[in-house]
Amino acid sequence: MSPNNLQPRWGDWIPRLLLKLGLRFEDSREERQFVQQFTLDDLGRTRAAMVLGAFVYCSFSAMDWILSPDAWAVATAIRLGVALLVLLPATLLLARPDMQPWAEQIYLVYCVVPGCMLSVIYVFLRPSFDHGAAGMIVVILFVSTLLPLRVSSFGVFAVLTWTCFALFETVATHDNPSLALVNNAEIGAAYALSLYGVGAREFRARRQFRTRQELQVEKERSEATLTELRAAQAHLIQAEKLGALGQLVAGVAHEINTPIGLALTTSTAFDHNLADLRRTVNSGQVRRSDLIQGIERLSEGSALVFSNLMRAADLIQNFKQVATDQAAGDLRNFEVQDWLVELVSTLGPLLRRKGHQVRFTCADGIVLNSYPGALAQVVSNLALNAVIHAFPDGHAGKITIDVARLGDAQIRFVFRDDGKGIPMENLPRIFDPFFTTRRDKGSTGLGLHIVYNLVTSTLHGRIELESEENIGTKITIDIPRAIR
């Protein structure tokens, strides 16, 4: 490759200058996108301005009549020909989607042709070039203010129309030849001012375009981050739910072990008593007292097995109902007292295993049309949260749940514990997602956040929390009796 090919080409100085002035993007794809947007922005208004421009261009034939009545017919014919053959067809072309990518070229033809033909009209008018600057300045102002031309396109328009004006002016007659210099000075000033205005408009448009592009990128990045955050939050919430369910399962399993173990022990004793009774009968020396004693032992064992198996069955049934409600999430009618008995019997094993007492009071006859699963999850999360945070270090405590009517349309749940309470500085953030003071112990900080969302969104209620250090915490939940 020759050294000359390594040098920048002479024709590249204009793009480099535009880059330095901020009137061109280095990325060609970005430049095409900007040009497309800039030239087609508010296309309806631009096309209306083009129709208006064609009308004004023709209406100046009245001025031609004043300047030169004998050449009026030729001037008017030229004006009408330009309007009918160039201006209006160019306006109509922009209505076609397949021609809109060529919008800037159409604008350039629209403004260059009438600008050049104006100089032709001035040749026929006598002595028109003495007043030609005014007509050219009107065209320049129209192009620079109402057509979305970039600096480069406006520069092409300026060079062609000014060259055409100067060329035809040299062959025209003048009453005052010195006016030619004045005309070109005025037109040059109009071009310079308009070029600055067009450049400033394009510069602002490019900055706005770049800002919108950056905002769009940031928006997409933020949306992607938010999607990832929501996915992570959903995963943690699911983990929190499974963790709570796991603790309930462990508590219920521990509680069921007792009646099942007693039933198993009793059934083993059954075998011994039955074997003794069988040997006594087989010996043929059956005393009435031995028979009565054997039957009494079997009866006592049978009653003990039955009561323990019934206790285990009740625990399993209650846990199954709570788990089904939480899994199904159905809206249904349920009696609060019976529902609360089942829930507390499910929570009881976990709480009692850690030495806590749980008590509840509920008025008779309270029926809700709501989501028992969501409500069970709220109470379960509050109980488990109290076990973890209110009674640390193995200290036993007391939890109470009071349910009462609040007018005719609402129910109030009051959940209390006599634990260590919540520090004042943490109260404003207590329902925030991921807020926890025991992250080092494995807490995710989602328990009360889940409670807040379930109460406000699913149960259509509200929740308030009050707490004092070393006294305890009180959580009040008001929910409607019927969700419609």
UniProtKB/TrEMBL annotation:
Q: Which Gene3D superfamilies does UniProt cross-reference here?
A: 1.10.287.130, Histidine kinase-like ATPase, C-terminal domain
* GO MF annotation, one: phosphorelay sensor kinase activity
What CDD domains does the record tag this protein with?
HATPase
Offer one Pfam family short name for this entry.
Answer: HATPase_c
List where the protein spans the membrane: 48-67, 73-95, 107-125, 131-147, 178-198
EC number(s) of the enzyme? 2.7.13.3
This chain's protein is named histidine kinase
- Which branch of life, at top level? Bacteria
**From which source organism is this entry?**
Methylobacterium gregans
Q: Give the reactions, separated by semicolons, that this protein catalyses.
A: ATP + protein L-histidine = ADP + protein N-phospho-L-histidine
Q: Which UniProt keywords apply?
A: Kinase, Membrane, Transferase, Transmembrane, Transmembrane helix
Q: Which major enzyme category is it?
A: transferase
Boundaries of each Histidine kinase domain copy?
A: 251-483
